Amino acid sequence: MSSESNITIIQSLSHEGRGLTSIDGKVTFVDGALPNEKVILKNIKKHRRFNEAEVAEILTPSPMRVLPPCPHASICGGCSMQHIAMSDQIDFKTKIVQEQLQHFGKVSPEEWIQPIVGHTLGYRRKARLGVRYVHKKEKLLIGFREKSSNFLADIEQCLVLDPRIGTRLRKIADVILQLSCYTDIPQIEVAASDAVVALIFRHLKPLTDNDIQRLKQLGKDYQFDIWLHPNAPLSVHKIWPEHTPEKLSYFIPDHNIEMQFHPMDFTQVNHEINLHMIQQAIDLLDLKPEHDVLDLFCGLGNFTLPIARRVKQITGIEGSQDMVNRAKENAAHNQITNTLFFAENLMEPNKNASWLNKKYDRILLDPPRTGAKEIIPLLAQCEAERIVYVSCNPATFARDAGELVHTHGYHLTKIGVINMFPHTSHIEVIALFTSVKRKKSHGHRQANISEII
User: Fold this and answer.
1) Would you tell me how many other CB atoms lie within 10 Å of the CB of residue 253?
2) pLDDT for the residue numbered 6
């Protein structure tokens, strides 16, 4: 293919942030390209229904384009949008949510609220980092995969990771190279709290005493908690510091709450955004002291406990008994007594569960990527006036929004984007649904009062 035939103008962005164009009538995804840019393509991979390409040269740059803050942005797959101005990233994510709502839910919101945004670097407190020794390079790599590849990117640092870990990848790699089984350490789980960073080393072969001492020294040198994740049946366990509590914690200062968690527990990746998100959910719920609230997919109580500070009672439901236990422990730790927690598989909910067969004033939903389609049909019987839905998948959210609006008598009143993962195409949203029935009955009551007067 000649270089001239490789020249094209990018038409739009795909949902994952790649440029889209048509070459000889066939859709081509162009990594690193932006709408309206004139570019020269390279490395085209042909598929039956589409092609893939990369940018060889930008002939006419887009106004959206900025210089990526990270020197590894062109190769590392951890971020896909560092070349896009942050305001344009937010606009892109908002547009995707709008399209998904129309396509999957056939619904539009009454109001778009301001996006939840924060710092765009050094934000990531949770990550699973790949580890691999590359014989050809004689180098041990730690980080994320390359773009469109299963190979690990050769990076020296990660600017989106919490700097306590992101600036020390080479230091950690140097220690792993000293281990007897350095080729059998496939990954490191990172879990950072306000005060501590925990590193959980997955190892496929047993560690020697010298290996363990080297990892402990790493913990001493950089104030890391060091954990090991051996093969089953051995469990994940902490080796450094010794004789200290295993749990990490983060604070929710506006509600005077300390949330304790195990490093392998699910917690929000972006702590700053999480605090804003909690407050936004509380504001949208419009809580009153007499309210009875239901929190579905409650995890360790991230929303439950702040809400509990403002209402009569809140019931949290979570599929994992371990997480339910953690939520109960957090309630006790914070001296919160108006909570109830139940373990329930919300993908196969028990229609006769005691917690489901009662009325609630407010409901909060924070499901996984698969959404909440199994539980939504059962929520109508709860007769909540307001439902706040937090989602990490616009497509399943849009599907569920359509169900709430078209089948169960709710308005999609407000919605906004949550920029939980800056510089990536990952999109989260928070939305308020209000009951049509409650609005109508309230209006009817007011009319009767007026007539009596």
Assistant:
1) 8
2) 85
Catalytic residue among 70, 298, 382, 392: 392
> Which stretch of 163-172, 207-216, 240-249, 299-308 has the lowest confidence by average pLDDT?
240-249
80-99 pLDDT per residue, tens? 999 999 999 999 999 999 99
Residue 42 near residue 52 (C-beta atoms within 8 A): no
Taking the CA atoms of the chain, what radius of gyration do you get in angstroms? 25
The set of residues, in sequence order, having a beta carbon less than 8 Å from that of 445 and lying 6+ positions away, is: none
What does the alpha-carbon distance between residue 399 and residue 380 come to, in Å, rounded to a whole number? 17
Q: Which amino acid is at 361?
A: D
Q: What is the mean pLDDT of the chain?
A: 93
Question: In this predicted model, what pLDDT tens digit does every residue of 102-135 receive, in sequence order?
Answer: 999 999 999 999 999 999 999 999 999 999 999 9
Beta bridge partners of 228: 201, 237
Instruction: Give the pair of three-digit tokens for residue 49.
Output: 């229904």
What is the spatial distance between Cα 340 and Cα 384, in angstroms, rounded to a whole number? 18
CA distances from 72 to 20, 56, 82, 141, 424 (A): 23, 17, 10, 13, 14
Q: How far apart are CA 141 and CA 154, in angstroms?
A: 6
Q: Which residue has the tokens 């359509």?
A: 402
pTM of this structure: 0.92
1: pLDDT strictly greater than 50: no
190: left (phi over 0), alpha (psi -120 to 50) or beta: beta
What's the length of the chain? 453
Average of per-residue pLDDT across 336-352? 96
- Phi, psi dihedrals of residue 157, rounded to the nearest 5°: -155, 170
Give catalytic status of residue 79 as yes or no: no
